[in-house]
Amino acid sequence: MLNNITIGRYYHKKSLIHQMNPFIKVLCTFSYVLIVVLFKDFVFLFLLLLFVLLLALMSRVPLYIYGQVLWTLKYFIITIAIFSFLFHDSFTEALFPLFRLILIVFYSSLLTLTTSPNQLAKGLEIFMRPLLLFRVPVKQVSLSFVHAIRFIPVVLDTADNVVRAQKARFINEELSYQKRALNAVQIIQPTFLKSFGKAEIISNAMAQRLYNLNKDRTFYDIPKIRFFDVYILAIHLTILTAIIYRLVIG
Amino acid sequence: MGLKLDNIKAAYGDNVVLENINMEIKNGLINAIIGPCGSGKTTLIEIITKFQKPSSGTVTITDNQKIGFVFEFPDQQFFCATVYAELKYGLKNKKEEKKISDVLKMVGLDDDYLEKNPHHLSNGEKRKVAIAAILITNPDMIIFDEPTVGLDRNSKNNLIRLMRILKQKYQKTIIVVSQDIDFVYDFVDYVYILYDKKLVAEGEKIALLSDTAQLQKYKIIPPRIVSLTQKINEKKNLQLDYRDDVNDLLKDMYRYVK
User: Fold this and answer.
1) Do A190 and B65 touch (CB under 8 A)?
2) Residue range A91-103, pLDDT digits in tens
3) Could you give the CA distance from residue B197 to residue B214 in angstroms, rounded to a whole number?
């Protein structure tokens, strides 16, 4: 049912990608998104796909998990495709936004699948630190952002549970379209109520562990920046610099 | 025959969780599926209830029988704000609303519960409401997943009484998935043992669950009453029959002493 939706989940494995420093990962993701958005060449985008595929293989997360993330967003991708074909003159032009979206989703799922929530929060916090100059509450924003992403599977699990609870009463029965529509509507309210309940449990658990947003935190298991991190970041930054240089020079 | 499973296989990726399951659940009986943790009980139930598709094999439900499924944790089964709404959900039209009180009475609750939030009830009451929510749909077959979790002895006895009524008075077929071997031995008719992803044994309750050597092979601790009978037979060199009721066992012992 809904529990095969993998968006926002962390997939625990021991791999070079998992052991990367979260800040470097966030930086790489940001660079990759910029590269994908700035460049408009199919061959190059295809090379970028091969690149993210290579990283995905190195992450030792089964490739079908990445496939599931894309499958989860199928309706969103289809909608983008329809709009893209409506507003572009040529077929190839229309394919660009679609291809870009797939690459961005693929790369961001590489980030979320290989980075634990704590590490991701820390990575984002360091990444957004320059915003402190503008008095942006970076810690709060990064933590809220990470919790929002991580809460997607919780909400989906809850919705799945409600669907099961409804189905448990009518197994092997043909339901009328009216009843099915009613079932679909009735999923929303309990899903939100149960999700809020779970959010409260999480916040209580954090409070019990004396979590205080206003105090500086130490991180127990943030990996140090190693040669591999620098190497991967260098690849990203080189490509990005080359593209920006080409755009500026023309 | 009410339900037939043919060559069921289930796997999550490369991880096979059920293999070559062939099973026929007969109508009108209380059946139990037992087995140690990780033997595939939950997956089997999910396949029967169509929550999950098997990797291969078929599930046949004869005569379009309706199936109701009572969850292991009642809280997961509730999605309405009141007991009334929870029960009303299973009704097909407004005329059937008088069924609500009848079903509540059947599980031992009264109308005072109707306006209560099901999540705020005690464990035993939650279990009763969860059962009532399924009973109101009038299923031919009811599946209980670990129904004794969080229940005291008294509540367990009430549950046994209810299941017996469902079988005898309303001719319901019942499938109980449980690790509580004493609870199972108390009242079921037929037992299936799952072990290491396979259906390894099935049979009449007393014949199957009194074979302690076989149970130990499948990492199942025998029912206490069976162990007691066995010890008495060994120590006193008697030939007492295996019983599912301790009073019957006492009567047998009394007869021997006499």
Assistant:
1) no
2) 888 888 888 999 9
3) 17
pTM metric for this prediction? 0.73
CA distances in angstroms from B240 to B127, B211, B216, B234, B243, listed in the order given:
37, 14, 21, 10, 9
At residue A153, the 3 state secondary structure works out as: helix
Indicate which of B46, B66, B79 best probes the interface with A, i.e. most A CBs within 10 Å of its own CB.
B79
pLDDT at A1 over 60: no
User: Is B12 in the A-facing interface, judged by CB distances under 8 Å?
Assistant: no
DSSP 3-state of A142: helix
Nearest to A172 among B51, B66, B77 (CB): B66
Facing A169 at nearest CB: one of B13, B51, B134: B134
Strand ranges (E), chain B: 3-12, 15-25, 30-34, 56-61, 67-70, 141-145, 173-177, 190-195, 198-204
Supply A36's token pair.
């994908």
Q: Is B65 on the interface with A (CB under 8 A)?
A: yes
ipTM value: 0.73
Nearest CA in chain A to B90: A169
A17-71 pLDDT tens trace: 999 999 999 999 999 999 998 887 888 889 999 999 999 999 999 998 898 888 8
Query: Å from B108 to nearest chain A CA?
Result: 20
Written as six digits, the tokens of B154 are 């008294």
CB–CB of B222/B201 below 8 Å?
A: no
SS3 letters across A45-87: HHHHHHHHHHHHHHCCCCHHHHHHHHHHCHHHHHHHHHHHHHH
